[in-house]
Amino acid sequence: MPLLNKNIVLTLIAGSYTSLVLSACSLSNPDNVQTAPDTTNSESTTSQDSGYTDGVYEATGEYGNQPSFITVTVNLEDDKITEVEVSPHATNPTSLDLQERFAEAVPAVVVGKRIDEVDVGRLAGSSHTPNGFNDAIRQIKEQAETEE
Description:
Layout: H1 2-25, E1 55-63, E2 68-77, E3 80-88, H2 93-110, H3 129-144
Antiparallel strand pairs: 1-2, 2-3
């Protein structure tokens, strides 16, 4: 009888883990495709309550051992991301597919959020691309910091 109970417990744990992994891998509305931000706008303004200067910013984030890169462009207004575009750079077909799926899914996760709240984890099946995205966001925050 103790062996049966141990098997039941292990099965429940494995099932819970599988459910958690599958929910983390699901897409966050893959049909939500955003248009690219207007990168020709060179004007920027600063809100009185803002810690960052409004404008369009771009940075290339690096991640992985090879290393891999993605370019992130964001439109920042009142410290919030109003638009985001991710440009994949991978040449390996598998990596490119993961970067493209990430690029398609990320707007639903970050648009409308304060840039200081953005820290993307595993998304659209990609577990490493978010590291490059978060690196690019860190660089963009440095670019947009308001001198007081």
